[in-house]
Each structure stands twice: as structure tokens, then as C-alpha cells.
Amino acid sequence: MAWNDRDKIGTQPVLDKTLVAHTLVDLADGEQDFEVVDDPAAAKPIAGIADLPLCVTVNKIGTRHILDATLLEEQVASARLFVFANPDASVAHVQKSGSGGIEPSLLREMTRTGASMASLLHHRLAEMLKLEAEQADLAKKTGTQVKKWGFFA
């Protein structure tokens, strides 16, 4: 699973706070018996959400490339490269679209640029979520409200 940048930035704050109820499974007598623990303190966060790859689109226009293209820029781009990268800027996947070709040296440069931007976005989002968590903790102690980030905030 990978996310494009706006999807991840919009949903990770929600998934970061989502808790999954603790579930006990009993396999006695050859049958499966499930028990969902309804104690909120026993719930656990979804593991690994912050580590999912993020997709950045890099557009080729002429002999150059750009990030975050406008609609007009996308219409004149000869090729588009979707770079899926992890928080450490390692590339998880690359996909090309468009009818134009990409020279090998430009392909490497576009991939590095996309991976670098994806890593930056990963880290900025993590910083914002950490700041929000710290503000929420402080708000609980002082009884004040906190500005929340994300689509469902």
C-alpha cells in the first residue's frame, strides 16, 4: 500500500490516532472463539502507519522536471514519474506514465528528487503529529482546546 502525498497528509493524522480493540482468539475444541475486549485502555494503535511509502509525482517538461505541477503544466508535460518512497528516502516503487521518454540521467535525477521530497514530507508530517500530540497532552492537563490537523480533525 502506498499513498500519494495529499492522501497521506489527510488521513495519517486520523489513522495515527485510531485504536484497534484488543481481541482474544480461543482455538479450543477445533472452533474459533473471538472475544473483543471493550476496555479502551487495552486498545492498541495501528502499527506501521507512519512507515508506509508516500508517492510524489515528478513531471518532465522539456529537458527539466518539476514537482507539484499545475493543471497547465501537467498538460504540457511529456512524461510523469510517480516516485513511492519511504521516510528514509529509500525508493519503494517508481512508475512512469505519459508518451514521452525519459533519458537515464534525468530518470535518476527525477527519482532522487521525488524520493527526497517524499522523505521531507514524511518528516514534516511526523513533526506536526508530534506537536499536535504534545499540545493535546498539555491541553488535557490545563483544560484548554487544541487546533487539530488532518481531514477529520
Strand tally is 9
- CATH architecture annotation: 2-Layer Sandwich
In whole angstroms, how far apart are the ends?
Answer: 23 Å
- Backbone CA Rg: 21 Å
User: What are the secondary-structure elements, in order, as H or E?
Assistant: EHEEEEEEHEEH
Report strand %.
25-35%
Overall 3D form: flat
Say what the CATH topology is.
Answer: Ribosomal Protein S5, domain 2
Q: Supply the number of helical segments.
A: 3
What's the overall average pLDDT, rounded?
84
> What is the CATH superfamily label?
GHMP Kinase, N-terminal domain
* Alpha-beta classification: alpha+beta
Give a short account of the largest sheet.
5 strands, mixed
| Count of discrete domains | 1
Share of helix, binned: 25-40%
Top CATH class: Alpha Beta
Sequence stretches where pLDDT stays below 50 over 5 or more residues: none
Main location: nucleus
Pfam families: RNase_PH_C
Keywords: Cytoplasm
GO molecular function: mRNA 3'-UTR AU-rich region binding
Can you describe what's shown?
By secondary structure, the chain is α+β, with helices and mostly antiparallel strands. The protein has one domain (3-142): Ribosomal Protein S5, domain 2 (2-Layer Sandwich). The strands form three sheets. Strands 1, 6, 7, 8 and 9 form a five-stranded mixed beta sheet that branches. A two-stranded antiparallel ribbon has the order 2-5. Strands 3-4 form a two-stranded antiparallel ribbon. The protein is built from three helices and nine strands.
